[in-house]
Amino acid sequence: NCMGTEDALSYCRMKGWGKNNCHHGEDAGVVCSATNTPAHLRLENGPSRCAGRVEVLHHHQWGTVCDNGWSLAEAVVVCRQLGCGTAVSALGLAHFGQGSGHIWLDNVNCTGTEAALSECQARPWGSNSCDHREDAGVVCSDTSGQLPLRLANGSNSCLGRVEVFHNQKWGTVCDDTWDLHDAAAVCRQLGCGMALSAPSSAHFGPGSDPIWLDGVHCKGTESALTECELSNWGEHNCGHSEDAGVVCSAAESPGGLLRLVGGPSRCAGRVEVLHNGTWGTVCDDGWGSPEGQVVCRQLGCGTLLSVAPGTRYGEGTGQIWLDEVNCTGEERDLSECRARPWGEHNCQHVEDASVECSDSSITALGTLQLLNGPNRCAGRVEVLHNHMWGTVCDDGWDLVDAAVVCRQLGCGTPLSATSGAHFGRGHDPIWLDEVNCTGTEDTLFDCQASAWGNNNCFHGEDAGVICSGNS
Fold it and tell me: What is the DSSP code (8-state) at residue 49?
């Protein structure tokens, strides 16, 4: 029993949930005046009217859509409603910049068959748990003559295998004659900045049939791939092992690019991200295992070995781009994690975050290392536990304990068991204290010690070892 002024049916008087004397021949329905007038919709801040931040008009005010649950199904509906062809990608994390004012929709859930976004399920207008850093975006194929284009199998939308949409199917491009000029046209069309490289030989994995284009010839100045000299659709002499790829600078993309610097391989080092054409570091405030897992996944470097303590791989220079990064660990890309706005931080470069992944050469060194010494057989003792390197307290530390360390590392016999942070102070955590070995153990972890992380020490008491080996 409604008065007609309520905002939702749940505010009306009714019998209790599930209480009725009805059958489905009595199911009620509604026909509203707006059946044929879907909510107004636009894409803002993109390269064309068919790509940008999603905005909807409600109560005569434009507002954004939160990216919770935002996927290709919702993007398909947006592109259909706007007459912009098919959906190329569904983007989150304010890829096209942060909007302002209301966030009108959240948890939008479409089947992909709807004619308008207003037909999809969603939370009530204005009800959300978001801020504008989570504004949703869409890139449509655009029926205005531009060739529908996407980059597949990369860590973000600005690098990957080149795929084009033709005859209702996505297909790949053969790498015959593929070069940086061709890549430049792709990056420019996608709004992904400059072309950094034009990988060939299915660098981003082989696609599936069809192979649509071969022998692409661009000058490098084109704004879209359609302006280049293209072969006839489907004419090629290639296999998918020759699928072309692109890596763009992504200067305008929040995802940017990611690298690990200063380590023994590309899979270990100081974390750096590319934003606005400039590389910068990430502050280690809140940096932990979930963030490290995302970095290793994004770089294709296997699983997380450790989130190394600050400055393990030296201090960076220039910008500190990210601070207070907060990932669940399930994200494919660091840009999908929450963080403070770009460049906002209260850090110095001594707090630069680092990551070590399983595909680095570090894996071969095991879970014990000697750091800050003249060679790998002398230095501060550090152990790996719970994806973090930490030190050992010198309480009770002696030559018997050192003998086990030297044996474990294949470094001969102990010459000295150093105390008082002889090889410099490490970084938190202090993992072990009151280590008490008999000298016969195979590894330090077989010795008696306090529980992991249980200690009454500070880093001025970090233990060290000098072994007879010097390799």
Answer: T
d(CA 181, CA 175): 13
Q: Is there a contact between 204 and 240 (Cβ–Cβ < 8 Å)?
A: no
Closest by Cα among 163, 157, 147 to 207 = 163
Tokens of 329: 């660990």
Q: How many CB atoms within 10 Å of residue 399? A: 15
Per residue in 264-287, pLDDT tens?
777 888 999 877 667 889 998 888
Which token pair is 190? 């996608």
Closest Cα to residue 200, out of 150, 244, 160, 158?
244
Amino acid, single-letter form, for residue 73: A
CA nearest neighbour of 40 among 84, 98, 92, 82: 82
Local structure of residue 451 (DSSP, 8 states): P
Any idea what DSSP says for residue 120?
S
Q: What is the per-residue pLDDT across 420-453, written as a single tens digit (0 to 9) for each?
A: 999 888 887 899 999 999 988 888 988 999 888 8
CA distance 166 to 148: 8
Pair 256, 199: CB distance under 8 Å: no
SS3 for 438?
Answer: coil
Helix (H, G, I), strand (E, B) or coil at 141: coil
Structure token pair of residue 451: 């529980």
**Two structure tokens written together for 73:** 């199904």
